[in-house]
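Example 3.2
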Amino acid sequence: MIPVSQRFLAAVRESHGVSVAASVFHPEDLGTPIPAAVVDGQVTMDRDARVRRQGSLEVVLEDPLTRDLLRALPYGGYATVERGVRYADGTEERVQLGRFRVEAIVWGELEGTATLTLADRMAQVQDEALTAPFAPAGLHPSEAAQQLVYAVFGDSILYHLETTPATEPVIGDAAYVDDRAAALTDLAASANAWAMFDHLGDFLLRPREPDPPPASVWTIDAGSTGALMTSQESLERSNVRNGVLVRGQPTADAPPVSALATFDDATSPLRWGGPFGRVPLISDSQSVATADQAAAVASSLLVLRLGLARTMTFRSVPNPTLEPDDVVTIVHPDGRTEDLTLNSVRIGLGVDGTLDLTATGLLASPVPLGVLLDEDAMAVAS
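Structure, written as tokens:
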């Protein structure tokens, strides 16, 4: 959750004025913001997307200078987008929803507006392929992940490692080629973490299973004075796996390591070997060096895959402070209350913009897991 004042959190539940602002940055001068007049737009944040923050922004074409600036933006320009509250006393409080690279711009000559397509800095990481093999031998996965990103942005951004690199196994003979973003994803997974860029555009490596678990930051409740507008629940099996096999190779002359995590709740139809069957996700990682590390990664991925069985979607009064991985308390119309972790957040920038949230949840909790290591894991998975 992006930090704001208690006054802000109280105001978004009530009738209030909306304050929206945006700035663009010329490719040759990324330190000087140029205000843009916002007409409309939206920002989407999705935990399961490689480029976590994306959006669109419609701005006014005010004069020829603005047009010339906008024509340059797709070639290295950036934009920031903010949404917040205008209080009755005329003061404003906004939160920055992201610092985005401008992907494209479209405008109609007679309409007087232009629409910018936006993506966070991970788009740049995707574009800048590895032109030479990246061999992070001797580093911890978190350190190697930071090196990959630093090679793109250098000291122009900040780096926040919420993991503990010293507790991670040292990488062996791994070598990554071509796809920088895929290498970053693999290294983050081996550190049991998410690699992302935060709302300020800085690099963040966040544990997938934080200790202690996060507390609820916002209540979305039904009723005439509540924040919940609509809700929907769905169940499906297409992306669900009830087992995860992780395989790694510590060094070229060492035997491979592996671990299979399975869902073993005897009361659940999703149990390994039950009515759902034995449906594993198989993941190969160059940076997994030990069987224990493979087991930790497999267990983490299994929890995520099981959670995809149940999807909850909500529409709420707009609260621009919410982000994926935040825990929210849902108070259903029938009085049921549950805490859910957000997977995606979409917020409109217009006066009538809404907040659409998606959360996935387990069908049973807690999650009994079984873990097999090495040869036994390979035999069971096959």
